[in-house]
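Recap for those who missed Tuesday's class. We walked through two folding examples back to back. For each one, the amino acid string is listed first and its predicted structure tokens come directly after. Nothing is annotated here on purpose, so try labeling regions yourself before you check the end of the notes.
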Amino acid sequence: MLKRLVRRISGKAEPAAARNGVTTMLAPPPADSRGRVKTFLMGLQSDICAELTRLDGEGCFLEDSWIRAEGGGGHSRVMKEGRVLEQGGVNFSEVEGDQLPPAILNQRPEAAGHKWFATGTSMVLHPRNPYVPTVHLNYRYFEAGPVWWFGGGADLTPYYPFLDDARHFHRTLQEACDSVDPAYHPVFSKWCDEYFYLKHRRETRGVGGIFFDYQDPRGVLYRGQDPTGPAALASAASGTTQHDWEKLFSLMQACGNAFLPSYLPILERRAGISYGEPEREFQLYRRGRYVEFNLVFDRGTIFGLQTNGRTESILMSLPPLVRWEYRYEPRQGSREKLLYDEFLRPREWHSDKQLERTCAAFGALD
């Protein structure tokens, strides 16, 4: 009984033979599942690139199409040296193989020995202006023998943060989740804080967003690594959530389509703020945290490298310029110190009046 409870809270996979010796099988996905997901994700890639090109006004996305020897391929679109975007990549991939890597099998051991298929769109944008946050998006779909699942999310990484930007980003993603099921966002927002956490720095990568993985009809929302953390507790409190392939595909669509309205207003509002060399140097220093996370912890990077993916596409998430500084300490009373003290930890962004007063005092409210 205790083992079942731990599995339920932690999201670790049940063995193939479920309780009382009855084998639990997932309902199969629709016959056209792969085509439908591929069509949506490629459309999402195109829509995002078109809007970013329009907004930047100078840069353009160059596309590399590639083929993976073991099966599948993809299309990588990268903008370099734009007016607003110093570098941004928006990728689509569709790959398959005979053996899943340890990064997946540790979570879904029942997929072992089956041919697998994975498709996804991933994006990281590194703006030129330090007052514009870096942003990340990834939505993906897997099939492996009798199992399938959806995953993804988006998160915001500011350098000189504004409370209204964090609130807008979170509110837009919450509305997307709630349009499918109000049970999703309380778990996925906490899971994002947990996932995008640099353990060796004891700080979050940014102000969060949403993150989910291994979502299938079994209905346990949290399937992460901390069975006693806030996301696990929120999942346990919500109980089993009824969803099938169509509902989870709707979740992917709603969240993917929410990206442009969640980020473009922030980019447009902050891109014209004047900055100097100190702000630029701090931006490059904080970009180092992005590199550290993506190379040490990021599940997509690990999966891509373990499955012999295209290295250039996998590592397009890294910024073009970055720096490290030994024993850096932000100055007391500075905007840089505000980032460390108030924004690099899980928060209740919408109702914290003290946070409002603090941000207002720094000119970081709106």
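Example two. Treat it independently of the first, because the proteins are unrelated.
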Amino acid sequence: MKIFYGVMAIIFFLTSFSATAQAEKKIFINAASRLMLFYDGNTRLAMYHLGLGKVSTPTPTGYYKISTKEIDPPWIDPSDPEYEVPSGPDNPLGYRWMQISGNYGIHGTNRPESIGGYVSNGCIRMNERDVEELFDAVEVGTPVEITYNRVVVEKNSDDDVVYYIYPDGYGIQDVTVEDVTKWLEPFGVLPFESEYDISQKIEASDGEPTFVGKPYNVEVNGTLAEPTDANNTRFFAKAVLRDGISYLPVVPVAKILRMKLEWNKTEASLKSRFGKVICYERKGQLYCNADDAMILFNIEGGLQTGDDGKKIFRFKSVPQSTPSVVKPKEDKKRKKTKTEVEKPFEEPEEKSESEEETQPKEKARPALDEQTEMQPESKEAANS
């Protein structure tokens, strides 16, 4: 039998099936983790530990359906069809059998210590209590999907993004830092897991959970923050709760508010026309504490629960009274100490030919770059 292994699938995708009586219930089995997830629609009903096929007789991957169900099944030795063990404590199938394809099926076991290992001739073993619970919950025709995914990323019921790396029990799937990075990125938490940490996790391959953070959408004045491209960098738009800090992505928020920021990399600070706050730089991404949003952006709000029951960081600008002030003329001879940072989302305005002829050319200054000092030319240099 030819076995196909889906070696690069990382996340369990909920597959759509025809609308039959039991179409919403689905069984997902990951041969790498030796776990079964039982769903009703998008709701996880249960998770069960399994005993799966040995390396020499691996559990096949693919898409199946429960074709038959049987209580108190007899066991027939595959190598000797004449030898049969009736239902009872000596029966390797336990007290429940659900066929999925040919001689392959989901069943109980009289060897509970084998659960969690690669021990069978390809069938899916379950603890007796678990298999009886599943048996009563499914019908013939319930879909069964079997994959082999060493890396699993999920967002749990507490909104935590968690990832697991399992050992390569069948020796068929290599995992690299780039693989894990690729599948963490869509969740918006990649800046909070270093490449070193990922490499250590791969080396361990212990199947233990790694909690990265809780990502949430950000809304400012009714506009949802979107990923923003600036300085050849893709800035993520999710706010992330981690280690007691609410990390707010400053570049997408600044884009909505059309606001200039000064980033001082040496001081690890961000400054706007409203105030100055500490900046957190993670893998080139810039964040501030959401509690400092009022200081930096003049917006108030925080984590809220929307009408759909999902949490979101929602902010609104605070109106300000702006008395008329006559600005003093700028002393052109004054020594410049900072480089103004242009908006990361706006191109500089184009000057007319006449303006270009009358104004000296300046070198383009990078957006959100480190502050630098600019010294005036000496008289000797000017007269040379």
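Answers for example two:
The longest helix spans residues 128-137.
The chain has a mean pLDDT of 84.
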